[in-house]
Amino acid sequence: MDEKEILKKIQRIEIFTNRLVNTVFAGEYESVFKGQGITFDEVREYQVGDEIRTIDWNVTARMGQAYIKKYVEERELVMMLVVDMSASTSFGSIAETKAEIAAEIAALLAFSAIKNNDKVGLICFTDTVEHFVAPRKGKRHVLRVVRDILHFQPKAPGTNIETALAFADRVLKPHSVVFLISDFKDSGYEKQLRLSSKQHSLIAITLQDRREVELPNVGLIELEDAESGERVIVDTRSEAARDRYTELNRRADAERRHVFRANQVDSIHIRTDESYVKPLIQFFRQRAARRL
């Protein structure tokens, strides 16, 4: 994708995500991700129904009538987008690759965050952390984050989720919001996932292409692992071969979901051939319901 195409795509993403943020996501985001404390706002006269515990006895004594201290929630949060840019994310059997879908989802989340005056940062990783953007506020900053994802050229093909999360833990204050966007073609990250989920509000977003779930009946095809380079010939005319492929992917998906549940990590599953809006909204509403 050249610079001109990237600019056009950024403009399209901005228009699309702004519309969604203004109509749906900003409110959903705010209802789910609250501030981590309260701060003093003002002193005002006591009104019927106010908590007696909030009375400011010093002010009450001076003024001769009851006054209370009013507090408000500290709203400002930090959102870190941890985006997998390994070779497997460049795959796409439809119009867009997993990496392009990741950029759109990142934009939607980032615009929702800045709408609520939160900061947004970015970590792009492969088998190491290759790019880091410190959290900041503002529309221009979010557009820079989206451009960095679309423009990113990975130096390594592999995936190391453990390294990415450990880096995020080092650069973030506790109680940040971390969205881990990946196809999760990795293993051995469970311990770090558990550690990160205890420090932050960690949400895993799994991206999956339809051809990673099922094979079409198109005869002999060569499948290549984008990260390892390993190749294998598969006869897709064989129903048994297609069923085997589907079953292997089903097991991998079930295992991944089990890891998330076992480590109390919220997860969102997104197919690149389907709209990502519905599963994102469903996640926000389900999580908001748990807070009630």
Known CATH architecture of the largest domain: 3-Layer(aba) Sandwich
Domain module tally: 2
- Please identify which CATH superfamily of the largest domain we are dealing with: von Willebrand factor, type A domain
The helix content, as a percent range, equals 40-55%
Termini, distance in Å? 45 Å
Shape: elongated
Number of separate strands? 10
The sequence of SSEs as H and E is: HEHEEHEEHHEHEEEHEH
Mind sketching the topology for me?
Blueprint lengths: L2 H30 L5 E8 L11 H7 L3 E7 L4 E7 L13 H18 L3 E7 L3 E8 L2 H13 L9 H11 L5 E6 L7 H10 L1 E8 L11 E5 L6 E5 L3 H24 L3 E6 L5 H15 L1
Helix pairs in contact: 1-3, 1-4, 1-8, 3-4, 5-6
Give a brief outline of the structure.
The chain is of the alpha/beta class and 292 residues long. It has helices spanning 3-32, 57-63, 98-115, 139-151, 161-171, 190-199, 239-262, 277-291; strands at 38-45, 67-73, 78-84, 119-125, 129-136, 177-182, 201-208, 220-224, 231-235, 266-271.
Features:
two-stranded antiparallel sheet; 10 strands; 2 domains; 292 residues; alpha/beta; six-stranded mixed sheet; single chain; Rossmann fold
How does this structure look, described?
It is a single chain. This protein is α/β, with parallel strands linked by helices. The protein has 2 domains: 3-32 and 76-291, von Willebrand factor, type A domain (Rossmann fold, 3-Layer(aba) Sandwich); 38-73, no CATH class. Helices cover 44% and strands 23% of the residues. Strands 5-4-3-6-7-10 form a 6-stranded mixed β-sheet, sandwiched between helices. It has a two-stranded antiparallel ribbon with strand order 1-2. The chain is elongated.
